[in-house]
Design goal:
This protein is an alpha/beta fold. Helix content is about 55%, strand content about 10%. The protein has an eight-stranded mixed beta sheet with strand order 3-2-4-1-5-6-7-8, with helices on both faces. α3 packs antiparallel against α4. The radius of gyration is 21 Å and the shape is elongated. The two termini are about 20 Å apart.
Amino acid sequence: MNDRTESGSWWKRLSGGLKRTSSSLGSAIADLVSKRKLDAAAVEALENELIRADLGPEFAGRIAAVLSDGRFDKAIAPDEVKAVLAGEIEKVLAGVAMPLDITAKPFIILVAGVNGSGKTTTIGKLAAKFRAEGKTVMLVAGDTFRAAAIDQLKIWATRTGASIMASTPGADAAGLAFDALTAAKTDGTDVVLVDTAGRLQNRTELMSELEKMVRVMRKVEPAAPHAVLLVLDATVGQNALSQVDIFGKIAGVTGLVMTKLDGTARGGILVAIAARFGLPVHFIGVGEGVEDLAAFTARDFARAIVGLE
């Protein structure tokens, strides 16, 4: 498949996946500007709609200021508003849209996130991506508290042709990580994806467990982990901001993956997160399939979220 066909099919999935958000924003914009000239009341109402889409009050205020500048009392088409909105969203996201560069061998990726965020599924999809690129992959079932997570990773390993290191539920995750990294170095594995527990009810316990895992991994590979990815579920909206904050402190997050953008009208939360934290966004997910997780690009996302072709 050539790049153009691939990018075209991804655009379809992306714009389709963001349909709830773009429809909600698009109808709000059309209602506000198609029946009257742009005035202070229309701009304020639009600002409220942007906040409702979880784009964040700071960003919404910025859009209001841009729209107010020299456009008052003029007729303005919905697509003009969308173009302004897409342009400003792209500016915020351009600085965080970064590919995940595999710079070491084995390249060790610690994957964090609350239970239910799509963390284990994301690991499986990333494994499929790396395998499709011809890389050898090891999955490490480090969420030893959930038997379902261990079983899920075993299925992904079989499906993608990755190797797997797993133990019994309740086993020591740090010990498992030590054995996995030792084996990965011996075997010359390209990428190691390490699942972790996602219980936030007891942050102290989670923090000490993650710290122990990292400490033990560094006995095998001093630079480990090379990346710490936080998987976020877009459907939780504002709650995602506090997850970035907490996991940033607990796990030293280096980049983000946002999943389930197809399940919410609040896809704008990614913009709010980018504006507040400035963390790299490596991948986004807009559906269940392996092909529904793709590298994040600012321009495509900005245009899809406001419903521009």
